[in-house]
Every structure is written in C-alpha cells, then in structure tokens.
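This section describes the prediction task in plain terms. A model, or a person checking by hand, is given the sequence of a single protein chain and must write out its three-dimensional structure as a string of tokens. No templates, partner chains or ligands are provided. The sample shown here is typical of the held-out split.
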Amino acid sequence: MPASPPPDMPPPLPPALARLLQDGYQLQLREQYEAAARAYRKILKAAPEQTEVLHLLGIVRARQGREAEAITLYRQVVARRPADAKAWYNLALAYGALGQEADCIAAMDRAYALDKGLPLAANLLFPARRARWDWRDHAALLAGLRAGAMGQSAPTLPFLVLSLDEPGLHLAAARRMVAAEKTPARPLVFDHAARRVATGPIRLAYLSADFRTHATTHLVGRLLARHDRTRFEVTAISIGPDDGSPQRRAVEAAADRFLDRKTASPEAIAREVAGLGIDIFIDLMGHTKGERMAAFAHRPAPVQVSYLGYPSTSGAPYFDYVVADAAVLPFADAGFFSEKIVHLPDTYQPNDPDPAIGPLPTRAACGLPDEGVVFCCFNGPEKLDPDTFSAFMRIVAAVPGSVLWMLAGREGGPDNLRREAAARGVDPARLVFAPIASHADHLARLARADLFLDTFPYTAHTTASDALRMGVPMVTRTGRSFASRVAASLMAQMGLADFATADAAAFEATAIALARDPEALAAARARLAAARAASPLYDTDRYARHLERAYEEMIARYRAGAPPAAFAVAPLPPA
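The expected answer:
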C-alpha cells in the first residue's frame, strides 16, 4: 500500500495540471505575470488544495504591485502551513510594501523564528528590534547584516551596518546597494559645458527629505540663511513631508529657491537640477530613510557632494566629495570612501548659534530624584546595543544613588530595558525615561543631567552638540569609523578631548571617576561654560565661510579641468 502524503502536503497533481504548473512557472520566470496568474488560477479551480500554487499566485500578484491581493493569498497559505517560513517571509514583504509596519514585523518575526537564513530578515528585524531595545537574536541578526554587506545574501541596508565599527564593511554594503538599487540602467546625459565658463554666484542645491522637525534641519537650517549671497545662490529641494513646523518655514525662508518635490521621480529631479544650471548638487541624506540618491546617478550637476546626513561613504561613483573634518575622517582612511575627502577646519558639523531654549524644569518635573548623579543618554534607542548597555549598568552600579535618564522611545521599549537592567543586577527603578518634547524644552531639561554617557560605535551627533551647548559633560568612546568619532570631534571643540576614550575599559573608568568626584564634574562644567562663547562649534558665520571656501575650491578644480581631489580648507584667523 503506498504511503500517504504528510498532512500539510496536497496530493500530486494529475499530469495535465502538472504540465500547466510548469508552464505557469516558466511564464513567471519570464515576467509574464498575468499569463502565469491565469495558469495558476486554472489549477486552483480544479485543485484548490494545492497550497504551493496558491503561494506562487501570491508571489505573482506581489510582483504586479497588487500587494493587497498577495496578502490575502499568503494568509491562506500560512493558515494551511504555519511552519512555512518562506510564506511568512513573503507575507512580511507584502505588508511592508503597503506600509503596514506592525503586521510586517510580526510576520517577519514568525519567518525568522522558522528560518534564520532568510535574506532580507535582518534588514527589517534589526532596526525594529533595536528601536525597542529588543535584543533577541542580536548576534544572529548582525551576522545577517554582515552577510548581506559582503555579497553572501541580499544587499544589506548600508545604514544598518554603521552599528558595526568596520569601515571596510560600510563601503562594501554601500557599493552593493548602489549597484543593486541606486543606479539607473540608462542614466540621463547632461551637458555641463556652460557651467565650466559661468560667471556670477555659484549655484548650490541642497536635497533632503528632512526639511522639517528633524536633527539635520536643527543643524543646517541656520547655515542656509548665512551663505554669502554675493557669491552663492541657494536652492533647497525637499523630498519629504511638510510638517508645518517652524523649522520647515525657516528653511523655506532661508533658501533663494525652495522646491517641494516630495513625489518627484529621481529623473524629474535630475532634469530640474540640470535645467537650473546648478553647479554643486549636495545630498543631505546618504543611505537614510526617504533618500533619492538615484537623482545624483544621472549627474545633473558638474560637482556632487555627500554632506552631513550620513556619517559614512555613499559607495557611489557619482559623488565627487564628502565633507568631513580631520578627527572624524582622516585622509589615511580614504580607502574606505568612494568620494574624495574634504576637511573643514574645526568641525564638519554646523550648528544653530542661538536656538530657542525653554524654561528650566525641576528635577522632580523630569521624574528625577532630588539627590544623586544623573547619567543621561539621549541618543536614539537604535544606537544602544547590549554591550554598551552592560557598560552603562556597571557604571550606574558603581555610583550609589545614580540613575540613567534616557528617551522613552517606542512603545514597549522601556519595559524591555527594565528587564535588561534587572538581568544585569541593577534595580530597574534606576532607569528614568523622558517623553518626547519640543527641541526647546528638551534643551532646557538637558541641564538637569550631570554626565552624558555615549553609545558605541554609533556615537552622539546632534545630541552631543545639544548636551555640550547646555553644559553637560560627556564621556565617549572612539573607534575606526566616521560614526564612532563624531562625539569626540565635537567634544574637542569644547575643551573636553580628554573625555574621549579609546576602549571600553577606559570609557567605564572615566565615567565612574568623574561621577564619584563632584569637584572634577564641576570643573568639567566650568570648562564647558568657558568654552561656549569662543568655540567654533556654534559659530555659524565662521563655519559658513569655511564651507564656502570648500565649495569654491571644488568649482575651481572643475573649471580648470582637474579631477576631484582631496584637500583641506585653510582656517580663517580667529575673530
């Protein structure tokens, strides 16, 4: 007597339907999706128990952009075969295509539990879990990111690889993504001959999805207004939402020309940039959410620059320069960057010289104890990994009465972190979570912290400038990558270079020693107060002149027919 098929396996197809299935699959491979769907539907009409055919029809519908229909089909598949990792995986991707984040992550969680080797799982699960301090499978997900960066799986999102202090891996991930998704098969061709002999102001165009309440705009907003209009014309191109915020309105007012191009294609943006005769096209995004890097792939401007928004290489051959400083990106690291490195004096990071600051709250209003050292880390939750949190907990445990003050982050995150603290022998009550607040109110409450503990390897950037501005000393740890050196670069501008440490042990020892010595902590605050008025970190006009010198050198090289080359801008004399 022949063996029966397993319960989750349908009986074999009759020969005619088997041939139809083969035909349908070949049509699918040739991207003749509607013809393939007709074949699959015919099979299902005769043999509705054929779950694999149902799955194939779902894949076809997803390829046709009919994700809602694909979801219905995939859900039928997983109802019949709940252990089918690929069906859960495809269901997750379909949810993601429709922006249904919670459903996407839930389905990918199921898929990953069944199969750790799924190619795009880490791209979805790693950031979703890190944002909630959910460190399940953390090492396995990092290994998945590494595999994608190195070409052993589907391309890894380059931004995620910044969680590893490996600049070579950052370059590999960026190059893979650019080749796979950011370079059109047939780039447009533009003639820039007129810009080689142009006179008058240099035409700049800054592109960002974050001209709104966002860290990038907090940094760059005032800079746009301070450009010398006798030498530069400024266009701002927004590819993100208009949140109606004062930050958005300030950028609109600061630019000579503001273009809202949220729905424009990369090709349309490229044509417009070329039509405006832009000399230098500046990307404030890199490999971050909402980017439109493919617009630069068409080479609509003679000089193209990666600046500020992404602390690593684009990996793209169509960016000529990356703006940095000697601390975050020494020339010796040029092999890890596809762009030529430009060093600004002082710092690569611009800042608003006089942002609005709210009234100083009491400790009690912030949920903080009246006594004891308040450590803080106001970096985004996704920057914190298990090893760094273990260091934080050892520091807190070594300083009696101290607390760690952090942003609350996503729903469920604080509960996860309290469990992690308890697992490390620290009373969860020693964690204090701050709600989201306006930038002005956040700056005000920062003054109630005693010492900022930085994350590694992705250190504080805008959050470092905010803390130093409000007189809060920091301890950071530096590494091999641009992202790991930003806080140290900023701290050097405020006289705290000695609090930038080179390894984990020194990071913990420095933080503990400072927290246990009230006089040393007070002296660090005094150093910050003394440095604040004269520091170039908040001198926007000085910064603007340095950046403009960089732009002028880029254009001078282009007009002389010289290729892009690394250079350092000479500093202006102190005011």
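For orientation: DSSP finds 23 helices and 14 strands in the chain.
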